[in-house]
Amino acid sequence: MKHMLAALEARLAALPVPMAVELPSGQRIGPASWQVLVVLRAPEAYLALAQGQIGSLGAAIVEGWVEVHGSMRDVMAAALGLLQTDPVRGTASWWSQVMARARSMALHTLERDAQQVQFHYDLSDDFYALWLDPRRVYSCAYYREPQMSLAQAQEAKLEHICRKLDLHPGERLLDVGCGWGGLIIWAAQHHGVQAKGITLSRNQFNHVRHLIETLGLQGRVQVELCDYRQLSDAPYDKLASVGMFEHVGQANLPEYFQTVYRLLRPGALALIHGITAGGTRNRQLGAGMGDFIDRYIFPGGELVHVSTLLQTMAEAGLEMVDTENLRPHYARTLWTWSDALEAQLDAAQRILAVQTDTERSGRALRAYRLYLAGCAMGFEQGWMGLHQMLAIRPSGEIQTGSLRGAQSDYAFQRDYMYPKG
């Protein structure tokens, strides 16, 4: 035991921030003047700490077996220093691939997808409103200018998507996984489209319906509570899907992109935006982090490398015409969300306690604190990416488009995407 404690003390001394550990016996290891203090309430948590299994340590924090004191930024700096393995390094054997596909298929039926989406997004609208921007855009912001606030960067992201899709008045736009309605409202108000959004979250559905009535957008914007596989009112001129394919499951990605293809008219554009894996072979983040996310935040969520997405997209008949990685933008977005939540912990606890008992609300709050800060760190480190992929459904008509062979509405140049001046 003395050897283990000495090894831990040496590791603590090498961390980028001063960190101390209090053992269940009350003995404290590390500097007297700390920025991060980890209090172990159960012996099992010591092993996760010693092995650098920060996801498992996070689970122990959520369950109340470990207490952590210090700012979330300092906590994540210490967690990064404790890691002993590369969390994106993975080797997928043929058997592990078979098992992963079987698990993916089982997790992504119509019924289970609805349950998994509602587990996350129906936690509490008031809780999300504490730390999201006023439009409740729950995806990567676009900091077009460094000095932008979160609200400005989210509006810039909405406009960035609309410009990439080259929206025109009267066009039919479908948003697959519309969240709290930010994109369809923006597109209708600023680009004059007929916008429709779909979601599996009852809270989001009710919120968007109320927004449509409040803003007087009936007849221009509509929302449905349904699965993307149930849509039948094609064709659409433009399609967006933001932060959605992470919930689809790798086994269902072919059907997802085939559905996108089916819903578009020939020559139409689709903008697919979402989180991608940083590694080409890892099925989830290592060091227990993927298990943490699956258990406490996004059950059934699956990340794949952008190359896998582009291959599956192409096999469905869609042609990728532009891809952009906004990874550092998501790191900044997540740190902004994290800072906003950290500034309102008491209010967050009260809001969550209304939904459930004190113990469960405490677990949820601890999970989200770690999730937001941990993901911010993950995007900074390149463990995940954030890609926007613009694709067309080729019309098959060589003469269609601004250039011979374009076979679509896409201009095959990027100038139109960016505001002048």
From TrEMBL:
Keywords: Lipid metabolism, Methyltransferase, S-adenosyl-L-methionine, Transferase. InterPro entries: CFA/CMAS (IPR050723), CMAS (IPR003333), SAM-dependent_MTases_sf (IPR029063). Pfam families: CMAS. GO terms for biological process: lipid biosynthetic process; methylation. It comes from the Bacteria. GO terms for molecular function: methyltransferase activity. The active site is at 375. Belongs to the CFA/CMAS family. This is Cyclopropane-fatty-acyl-phospholipid synthase. It comes from Comamonas aquatica DA1877.
